[in-house]
Specification:
heterodimer; A: mainly beta; seven-stranded mixed β-sheet; four-stranded antiparallel β-sheet; B: mainly beta; six-stranded mixed β-sheet; three-stranded antiparallel β-sheet
Chain lengths: 121, 110
């Protein structure tokens, strides 16, 4: 059974760096074809894809946010970490992590419950 | 990369069929058979409904189907049920080796 859970601060100040952790179980990020991605959703708005990391450490980033994002994995802890720098109120959103690999190489087939991050002074 | 284009809303009566479109470019939808569809109920995480244009994950009702023609992908739902009322998002792989979502479509079951 695959599960994922996001954790991190619920409130950050403008210009600060956000660090979110996705802790997962039921799969290994060392298995060929497996990946973990991050997606966010501002309140009342659409999903926005941010980044993903594959089992072979291949990393992909949204072109519009690439300069602010870093994704890393710790396979021994079954965790993926998202770092986003220079946070702004427009970055207020629910941040989701998701598994890739049971339904092709690009579809997010299992999702975490999401964590709401508010950016405010 | 620009978000894929979806209608803001669609509606249908119970038992009817509806289709939601997702329009991109030859650099995303039209260039790859890597289109996915997600269903999201209020306050819940998205759920994968269709992957690789037309494949259904295990456990997803066969009332849901996907297709693609040129730069436009479509999600069809037959035999509408009240529980189908939700937001639906498409997603595609892109020529930049990234992913992109659509703007979302709110489905109302009348």
């Amino acid at each position: 059974q695959i599960t994922l859970k996001e954790s991190g601060p619920t409130l950050v100040k403008p210009t600060q760096t956000l660090t979110l952790t996705c802790t997962f179980s039921g799969f290994s990020l060392t298995t060929s074809g497996v990946g973990v991605g991050w997606i966010r959703q501002p309140p009342g708005k659409a999903l926005e894809w941010l980044t993903l990391i594959y089992w072979n450490d291949d990393k992909r980033y949204s072109p519009s946010l690439k300069s602010r994002l870093t994704i890393t994995k710790d396979t021994s802890k079954n965790q993926v970490v998202l770092t986003m720098t220079n946070m702004d109120p427009v970055d207020t959103a629910t941040y989701y992590c998701a598994h890739i690999g049971r339904a092709g190489l690009t579809a997010q087939d299992y999702w975490g419950q999401g964590t709401l991050v508010t950016v405010s002074s | 990369q620009s978000a894929l284009t979806q209608p803001a809303s669609v509606s249908g009566s119970p038992g009817q069929s509806i289709t939601i479109s997702c329009t991109g470019t030859s650099s995303d939808v039209g260039g790859y058979n890597y289109v996915s569809w997600y269903q999201q109920h209020p306050g819940k995480a998205p759920k994968l409904m269709i992957y690789d244009v037309s494949n259904r994950p295990s456990g997803v009702s066969n009332r849901f189907s996907g297709s693609k023609s040129g730069n436009t992908a479509s999600l069809a739902i037959s035999g509408l049920q009240a529980e189908d009322e939700a937001d639906y998002y498409c997603s595609s792989y892109t020529s930049s080796s990234t992913l992109v979502f659509g703007g979302g479509t709110k489905l109302t079951v009348l």
